[in-house]
User: What shape does this take?
Amino acid sequence: MRKKVAIIMGGFSSEYKISLKSGNVVYDYLDKEKFNPYRIQIFKDRWVYVDSSEKEFPINRQDFSLELDGEIIRFDCVFNAIHGTPGEDGLMQAYFELLDIPQTSCGFYQAALTFNKRDLLSVLKAYDIKSAPSYYLNKGDEIDEKKIVDKVNLPCFVKANKSGSSYGISKVYKAEELKSAISVAYLEDDEIIIEGFLEGTEVSVGVIKFKGKTTVLPITEIVTENDFFDYEAKYEGRSQEITPARITKEQEQNVTRIARTIYDVLKMSGFSRSEFIFIGDEPYLLEVNTTPGLTQESILPQQAKKAGISLSQLFGSAIEEALS
Assistant: This one.
């Protein structure tokens, strides 16, 4: 009997449009002979099943069930395609754990930790994972430009601490630009991380569980036409994503080892995509995404394709791993 799979998409953050695209790609490519998929859109004001005619039916949030034509549908597994909150920060993971419904992404603790850039980098320092110098601010804190510049130098990046897809991020060249960039970041989050600029080759490394094994996918090199890998570069064609990356064997070995170490140390499951900058042969960690983009143009599906893994196999393996 085909497993009933709820593909959750949407979310509460600025990334909801990207999530809807990812979720629909999962729906289109999931093997319909093995799985019976349902598109579930999660928003603050409604949780709904959307059928093929775009008609909406409410989800019962008490047990995550669906009533269709007098029948109560209970799902065997949830495929998480929500970028940002509540799908990437641990909220949905904890909800499904309480309901004892398997889901494809990592656990709630791992999701909450990786979504918080400041906490993630602090935890990984103990494992000799290198990162840029950083300065932290919370909304309401005094902004001391001199202290910030002394700590991280210029140029630097001002980022929302808990956000993705480059929302709330600015590259700052002058101290007098800091307050404006901080205001932009506060539109996305009440916590900020300011990081020193690292000049080097940027790469993205996908790590997944595939057929029961931790698998590091071919590495992607990011070459942006913009000043940095911002929203426009990521989603509007203003960058090249070259897989496999044009890096040395030593760089490849180093970043592969570190990406696998992060996945194992954090006891991850599901998909992850880590971003690094090389300083010489040493990779410096930028961030870890646990619900990466899943459109055909997204980085992780590109890497899977290069590894000989089709979208159908990629998505199906995630569900089978969750069910096991």
About this structure: The chain has a mean pLDDT of 93. The chain has three domains: 3-104, 112-130+199-323, 134-196.
